[in-house]
Specification:
Blueprint lengths: L2 E7 L3 H12 L1 H8 L2 E8 L13 E3 L3 H4 L6 E4 L6 H11 L3 E4 L2 H17 L4 E2 L10 H8 L5 E7 L2 H13 L3 H10 L8 H4 L2 H15 L9 E2 L7 H9 L2 E12 L2 E12 L11 E8 L3 E8 L3 H17 L25 E11 L4 H11 L4 E6 L8 E8 L2 E2 H12 L4 E10 L5
Parallel strand pairs: 1-2, 1-4, 2-3, 4-5, 5-6, 8-10, 10-17
Antiparallel strand pairs: 7-9, 7-11, 9-10, 11-12, 13-15, 13-16, 13-17, 14-15
Helix pairs in contact: 1-12, 2-12, 4-5, 5-10, 7-8, 13-14
The structure holds L-homoserine.
The site of L-homoserine (HSE) has 11 residues, from helix 7.
Length: 429
């Protein structure tokens, strides 16, 4: 049996998991790959007590790995987009295949890196960049290759989903849950990437490009985080039969491709609404397969290592699936719909004075903007409060129209600013 020689750059959460799984499952993995997979070189600034690297060459300079003529595949697990980019480009120029878990690198620089790899006759594989242990890149690129993909929607940040789940189920405070996610190794080095939706947006951009055959368009995507979600909106959403999830949504619509990450009310009865904790899920709607749902651990040491090693096995097998899922020359730029043109329904929470005529004034503003009310809850004012919450669900309308209506509602002296606005998606096939 021949040997595929692997060099690993970075020995953090995912790097240590990769070493441990390759060592533990060596016989199974080589049986599947048809060649032995051997880690011959690790580049890491420091050792990791969570893994045994005995018998493997270890360098403190990670660039020693990409310059090692003994290495066939470089596994980039350092994260970030500066040193990681230089490392990956040097590896490609040295004729080495690259496996990476780095979603930011692919979303921001994939349009430069992937063509360079193709020109050098090597592969850049990034299954681990999206949704941890879920083989979603494989599903989009291969499993649903027959389909005209209409849309996909995913819970693709484990930390954010963990925070929302713990807030809803246990009433825990945001900061407390985030600290736990950091301790468990789920959160990004900068956790604002998790809570402000940037990490989810990196992943969405990758999925959308593979689904629709277009370049990575991170700068055109719309991103809104979960840091402003209030516990009372979680409760009102439940009363209306919905859950609030932080979704990445990509959809082919009339004017172009929608590319957006934001908190979203989704019907509580949907399977994806019941994906909790650090788990991720991607719901994909193809014209032939219909809706298919992919579920699993979206972060964590061995779950992400599973995806890294699957890519190494693919390289060992000589798989030649196009990196973008479409043949060279078939990837084309498509218009990304500005958020103002997106059409969806909305949840609104308006704090208004408890006096006659308020509701009819609000309803008439909405009606003037062509927006109808699908559901409404009005609560009694607590004894010490003169404002009452009015909660509305609207019909499907354009974001620009909704924002104009919200501005008009906020201008009433009987309304407390700001009006809370959360988008609603039915996720119906
Ligand atoms: N911080 C990421 C998450 C790690 O929580 O999903 C996996 O990409």
């Amino acid at each position: 049996m021949t040997t595929l020689k692997v060099g690993i750059c970075g020995l953090g959460t995912v790097g240590s998991g990769t070493v441990n799984v390759i060592r533990r499952n060596a016989a199974i993995i080589s049986g599947r790959a048809g060649v032995a997979i051997e880690i011959v070189h690790i580049g890491a600034r420091r050792d990791n007590p969570n893994c045994d690297v005995s018998g493997i060459k270890v360098s403190r300079d990670i660039f020693d790995v990409v310059r090692d003529s003994n290495v066939d595949v470089v596994v980039e697990l350092i994260g970030g987009t500066t040193v990681a980019k230089d490392l990956v480009i040097e590896a490609i120029n040295n004729g080495k295949h690259v496996v990476t878990a780095n979603k930011a690198l692919i979303a921001l620089h994939g349009n430069e890196i992937l063509p360079l790899a193709a020109a050098n006759g090597v592969t850049v594989a990034f299954e681990a960049a999206v949704a941890g242990g879920i083989p979603i890149i494989k599903a989009v690129r291969e499993g649903v290759a027959a389909n005209d993909i209409k849309w996909l929607a995913g819970i693709i940040n484990g930390t954010g989903n963990f925070i929302l789940s713990e807030m809803r189920d246990k009433g825990r405070a945001f900061a407390d849950v985030l600290a736990e996610a950091q301790a468990l190794g789920y959160a990004e080095a900068d956790p604002t990437f998790d809570v402000e939706g940037i990490d989810a947006c990196h992943k969405l951009v990758i999925l959308a490009s593979l689904a629709f055959g277009m370049p990575f368009r991170f700068n055109k995507a719309y991103t809104e985080g979960i840091s402003k979600i209030d516990a009372q909106d979680v409760t009102y959403a439940e009363e209306l039969g919905y859950r609030i999830k932080h979704l990445g949504i990509a959809r082919k619509s009339k004017g172009g491709i929608e590319l957006r990450v934001h908190p979203t009310l989704i019907p509580a009865k949907r399977l994806i609404a019941n994906v909790n904790g650090v788990m991720n899920a991607v719901l994909l709607n193809g014209d032939a397969a219909g809706p298919t749902l992919y579920y699993g651990a979206g972060a964590g040491s061995e779950a992400t290592a599973s995806a890294v090693i699957a890519d190494i096995v693919d390289i060992a097998r000589g798989n030649s699936i196009p990196m973008m899922g479409f043949a060279e020359g078939e990837v084309s730029s498509q218009r990304i719909l500005p958020i103002e043109e997106v059409e969806t329904s909305y949840y609104l929470r308006i704090s208004a004075e408890d006096k006659a005529g308020v509701l009819s004034e609000i309803a008439s503003v909405l009606s003037r903007h062509g927006i109808s009310i699908e559901a409404l809850i009005q609560k009694e004012a607590p004894d010490d409060e003169k404002h009452v919450p009015i909660i509305l669900l609207t019909n499907i309308t354009q974001e620009a129209k909704l924002m104009a209506a919200v501005e008009a509602i906020e201008s009433f002296e009987f309304v407390q600013r700001p009006v809370v606005r959360i988008r609603v998606e039915s996720l119906a096939g």
